[in-house]
Write a structure and sequence with these properties.
The structure is a single chain. With 325 residues, the chain is an alpha/beta fold. The protein folds into two domains: 199 residues, Rossmann fold (3-Layer(aba) Sandwich); 87 residues, UDP-galactose 4-epimerase, domain 1, CATH 3.90.25. Helices cover 38% and strands 17% of the residues. It contains nine helices and 13 strands. A seven-stranded parallel sheet has the order 3-2-1-4-5-6-11, with helices on both faces. It is globular and about 55 Å long. Bound molecules: nicotinamide-adenine-dinucleotide. The site of nicotinamide-adenine-dinucleotide has 32 residues, from α1, β2, α3 and β5.
């Protein structure tokens, strides 16, 4: 237990705790000595993502839908901080826009109402770079127009707007973090997962690496542990009240480059195949993280290839665990 952390001994709720990013938050918060409650409906998350925390006296996992007010009330009561990471993000196939809105808009509103009712001190909200849509100004900073081009992006923007309204109307201490292309162990490797995990899985299974279109589309890959630090800073730094931040590394890597470098890194002999381009696929990412660096002092990992190489073993371990079950 780290008695130095201002979160030690505090009740913190991580929604989406059994998901990729939520599980990393639960891990760090438990380590810091917070009383951590993970909430997840396991629609996309997995109990195995939290297995290693079982038995820790300051950690518990609750199965609940964030839209379910009755189920969420005892979870939120007495909480000091909510890290809201639960989301419906089956955006890849645009398969269920109603669900995206119900969870990402309605679920967020539900949590905000409960947070207000129970006087929760801080609400840290996970948003996404998808709220910007196709960038019209590069580098994209937080003042960029918000014109999402996916159901997911629209529903996440609805969530953000509710957060902002609660800050403005009731003075709730909120912070919005817009994540971009997060990578790290425990990321989903199915079609809803991230491209790094998908390529890794395909390489391990000896399958081709499929690229939509020419592969020159850029992504701003961000190391999951940096996001954990951004969340902790948002929860504890007074300057973050009412602020929105791009939580992105700012690096730019093309998908083709990723495929080629990952093949080389793993000495893999799998082909790269090009498929039809995705409708609405965003080509250029050049994300400004100046505000979060300046105001919250977050230094993002910029050695993408080195971090990937160093964490490969952990990545592979989790992937094998996930795929073999
Ligand atoms: N991974 C990324 O690159 C990325 C990029 C931008 C934004 N985000 C945002 O970060 C957050 C976490 O994403 P992730 O990548 O860890 O995704 P994830 O799918 O791994 O985690 C989300 C979790 O939310 C849970 N969940 C979904 N609906 C729920 C509901 N109604 N009630 C309770 N739990 C529910 C899922 O079961 C899952 O465990 C999300 O808000 C997402 O929009 C992620």
């Amino acid at each position: 237990m780290n008695e130095q952390s201002p979160l030690a001994g505090k009740k913190v709720v991580v929604t989406g705790g059994a998901g990729f990013i939520g599980s990393h938050l639960c891990e760090e918060l438990t380590q810091l000595g917070a009383e951590v409650v993970s909430v997840d409906d396991y629609s996309a998350g997995h109990a195995r993502n939290l297995e290693f925390l079982a038995g820790r006296p300051n950690f518990r996992a609750v199965r609940a839908d964030i839209c379910d007010r009755a189920a969420m009330t005892p979870v939120i009561a007495g909480a000091d901080v909510i890290f809201h990471n639960a989301a419906s993000k089956k955006n890849v196939c645009l398969i269920d826009p109603q669900k995206d809105l119900r969870v990402n808009g309605g679920g967020t509103l539900n949590l905000l109402e409960l947070a207000r009712e129970h006087r929760v001190r801080k609400f840290v909200h996970a948003s996404t770079g998808s709220v910007y849509g196709e960038p019209v100004v590069l580098p994209t900073d937080e003042e960029h127009p918000l014109r999402p081009v996916s159901y997911y992006g629209v529903s996440k923007l609805a969530g953000e707007r509710y957060v902002d309204v609660f800050h403005r109307l009731y003075g709730m201490d909120t912070t919005i973090l817009r994540y971009f292309h997060v990578y790290g162990p425990r990321q989903e490797s199915n079609e809803f997962g991230g491209v790094v995990s998908i390529f890794l899985r395909n390489i391990l299974e000896g399958k081709p690496l499929a690229i939509f279109g020419h592969g020159h589309q850029e992504r701003s890959f961000t190391w999951v542990k940096d996001l954990v630090r951004a969340n902790l800073a948002a929860a504890t730094r007074p300057e973050s009240a009412g602020r929105v931040y791009n939580a992105a590394s700012g690096i730019r890597v093309t998908i083709l480059e990723l495929a080629e470098r990952m093949k080389a890194m793993m000495d893999a002999d799998v082909p790269i195949v090009h498929q039809a381009p995705l409708v609405g696929d965003i080509m250029h990412f050049d994300v400004s993280n100046e505000r979060i660096r300046r105001e919250l002092g977050i230094a993002f990992e910029r050695d993408f290839w080195g971090t990937l190489q160093r964490s490969l073993e952990e990545f592979v371990g989790h992937l094998r665990g996930a795929v073999l079950r």
